[in-house]
Amino acid sequence: MLKVERQKRILKIISENEIGTQEELAKALKDAGIVTTQATVSRDIRELRLRKRHIGPGKQRYIAPETKPDIIDGQDSGSYIKVLASGIISMAAAGNLIVIKTYSGMAMAVGAAIDSMMIEGKLGCIAGDDTVFIAVGDASMTERVILELKGVTE
Fold it and tell me: How far apart are CA 119 and CA 90, in angstroms?
């Protein structure tokens, strides 16, 4: 089964069921005829930007963001992830900016990939030939944004 189809099924499962753990999600996928690994489920959760919401004493469930950043018009935006993984050389915080060094000519593609992502605190980015600047709302957010970008590219 293709990743896009599996991720669409995950969104359907979490919208119709109270799924609170990766194990529950993997079992629900298996019950739907989709056998997958815990690592794949974890990666799908990260790519779909699923979050947990408190629903009662000691209970949580996965919820999808308002928009689905990694499924655009029914197509997998895995190419954005590949651009990030292959284009970024380094990232560093500079106040409320993140400076990303890329391979020559890759900054615009990396910037477009970052623009497509739902990252809390990201105000916008600008790209040159081999450098991208990301403005974040507050300097305290820069390390979290860097970690989120690293999580997508690893």
Answer: 18
